Recover the amino acids of this structure.
């Protein structure tokens, strides 16, 4: 096993059976955590689904050329040193590898002494043990359930950015970008810089958000977001048509996108389009932390569930730390710092760094973190998506893309007795397709809350189970038949009637 | 719907999609190569048979599921395209295929 990379022929077969730490996710948080841990002589393994480090924000950063720096900007280029520091470290790296489960290992006295992590790469699955685990699973784009969002030709803005970063693809033909959030204008500017013709940017930011955000303007005014944001706005406004106060949005076409329809100023408008790029912010990707049983809470400012962590990024599950945007959206810079703090916390729990030394090293990190988080409240308030775009009012709008379940069906299931997402699943199979609720979970929570006139925190989220990514039967069958392996595979079957499901109250 | 920037084309790879030869750039994911070739839809859904195409490009939405070299349910955005690869649209639900011997 050479440092830095798993041999491509043997894949994860070359990994050791156990490590001090397994870090999941090679975005800024995971890379920084792994580099920090390797620096304390912890035997560290970083696993990541992509072929190269960087996560989504720094996707393909190690392959980027100077021309990409010009196109994608300095914030993207900053990821290069984070990835290079990691590749130079003693940490082992398993790219193109999916982590699909995590199961606590118990000592003689029943205490948690580590975890066993299920990995899969190139058709081979392994269960690998670690004394500590750091999940840095990042963010994904908030669901944007509008009529027609399943049509071919409708994609997320993040998807277009990934195509640009990884393959140098720019949209051609009639391109419309719609939604809200900082990434909307960043992407528009990047695509225009790369030579794309953007027909229009449809901005769905509600007018009243400006008032709400104004209360948090102080932090924003002293943050770097201000200058960056103004520059992006200027670029986009000069080079394309920006339509504001968009209050309704739909994609239309037979078999594929033909037209984008929107409402603004009390009137309906239409525009022919080949590609519609949707975006309304990013939310923590909680599938792993939820399946692992970590405690989560509703974040009212970010309108999402997020796992609870302590000052060292430790979750409510012993030996399991969470870092980066997966714990609440703070952006790439904050994620990298959180990764280092999580790394110090883990190293301390492993006995590799004394608590006093850990505290001393974390002081400057916490100062930098506070600085990186400046202006976040302002952005959260300004780019809070309107309810109409989070909770579909049209009953025919598809909410669960996999099982093709509409908003109307979900509302009807509530009337029929489904009090929460887990009971509703039994009625409709909503959230039980291959994406495992990633594209519908928040919409479902908010829809049921709306229908029952409750707060989302009272409704809760899907109870997710391993494997969190589909595995092939032969991968499972080839796993060693140890007791822990049987538990890893069978525990969730036994767990089907989780008490949380039964505790959900029926609608009043 | 997408075109490739001239400064980003690398070594040519040829694969087929539903029997049609397509030229991709080395390192492309299957989904990116299909988008670059103008393919918008790569599967139909098991429930209603509606056409779907790549949506998130980061492995979370499972919309780009395709059959690759005879195996269904592969995530096109997470598989790197290889010379001679046989990619096919996935029609409806996946079919069970014999698993390769280990």
């Amino acid at each position: 096993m050479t440092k830095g990379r798993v041999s491509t022929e043997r894949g994860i077969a070359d990994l050791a059976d156990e490590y001090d730490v397994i870090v999941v996710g090679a975005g800024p948080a995971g890379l920084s955590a792994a580099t920090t841990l390797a620096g304390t002589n912890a035997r560290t393994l970083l696993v990541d689904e992509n072929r190269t480090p960087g996560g989504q924000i720094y996707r393909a950063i190690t392959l980027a050329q100077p021309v990409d720096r010009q196109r994608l900007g300095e914030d993207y280029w900053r990821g290069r040193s984070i990835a290079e520091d990691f590749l130079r470290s003693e940490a082992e790296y398993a790219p193109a590898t999916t982590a699909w489960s995590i199961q606590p290992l118990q000592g003689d006295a029943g205490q948690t002494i580590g975890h066993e992590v299920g990995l899969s790469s190139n058709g081979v699955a392994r269960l690998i043990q670690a004394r500590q685990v750091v999940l840095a699973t990042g963010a994904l784009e908030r669901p944007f359930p509008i009529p027609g969002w399943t049509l071919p030709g409708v994609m997320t803005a993040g998807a277009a950015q990934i195509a640009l970063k990884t393959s140098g693809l720019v949209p051609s033909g009639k391109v419309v970008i719609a939604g809200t959030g900082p990434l909307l204008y960043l992407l528009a500017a990047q695509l225009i810089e790369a030579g794309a013709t953007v027909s229009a940017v449809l901005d769905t930011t509600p007018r009243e958000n400006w008032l709400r955000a104004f209360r948090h303007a102080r932090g924003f005014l002293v943050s770097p977001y201000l200058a960056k944001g103004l520059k992006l706005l200027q670029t986009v406004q000069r080079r394309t048509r920006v339509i504001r106060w968009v209050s309704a949005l739909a994609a239309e076409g037979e078999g594929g996108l033909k037209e984008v329809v929107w409402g603004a100023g009390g009137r309906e408008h239409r525009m022919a389009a080949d590609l519609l790029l949707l975006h309304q912010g990013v939310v923590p990707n909680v599938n792993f932390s939820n399946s692992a049983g970590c405690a989560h809470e509703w974040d009212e400012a970010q309108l999402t569930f997020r796992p609870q962590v302590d000052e060292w990024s430790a979750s409510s599950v012993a030996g399991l730390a969470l870092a980066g945007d997966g714990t609440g959206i703070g952006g790439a810079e904050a994620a990298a710092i959180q990764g280092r703090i999580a790394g110090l916390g883990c190293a301390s729990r492993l006995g590799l760094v004394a608590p006093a030394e850990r505290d001393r090293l974390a002081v400057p990190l916490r100062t930098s973190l506070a600085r990186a988080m400046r202006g976040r409240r302002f952005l959260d308030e300004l780019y809070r998506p309107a309810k109409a775009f989070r909770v579909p009012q049209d009953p025919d709008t598809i909410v669960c893309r996999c099982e093709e379940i509409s908003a109307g069906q979900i509302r009807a299931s509530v009337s029929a007795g489904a009090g929460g997402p887990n009971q509703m699943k039994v009625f409709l199979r909503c959230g039980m397709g291959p994406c495992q609720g990633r594209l519908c979970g928040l919409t479902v929570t908010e829809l049921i809350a709306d229908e029952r006139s409750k707060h989302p925190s009272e409704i809760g989220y899907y109870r997710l189970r391993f494997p969190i990514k589909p595995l092939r039967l032969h991968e499972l069958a080839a796993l060693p038949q140890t007791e822990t392996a049987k538990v890893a595979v069978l525990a969730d079957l036994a767990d089907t009637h989780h008490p949380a499901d039964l505790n959900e109250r029926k609608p009043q | 719907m997408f075109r490739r920037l001239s400064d980003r084309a690398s070594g040519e790879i040829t694969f087929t999609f539903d029997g049609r030869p397509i030229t991709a750039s080395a390192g492309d994911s299957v989904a990116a190569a299909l988008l670059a070739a103008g393919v918008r839809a790569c599967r139909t859904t098991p429930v209603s048979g509606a056409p779907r195409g790549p949506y998130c490009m980061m492995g979370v939405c499972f919309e780009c599921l395709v059959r690759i070299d005879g195996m269904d349910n592969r995530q096109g955005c997470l598989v790197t395209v290889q010379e001679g690869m046989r990619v096919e649209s996935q029609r409806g639900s996946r079919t069970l295929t014999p698993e390769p011997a280990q």
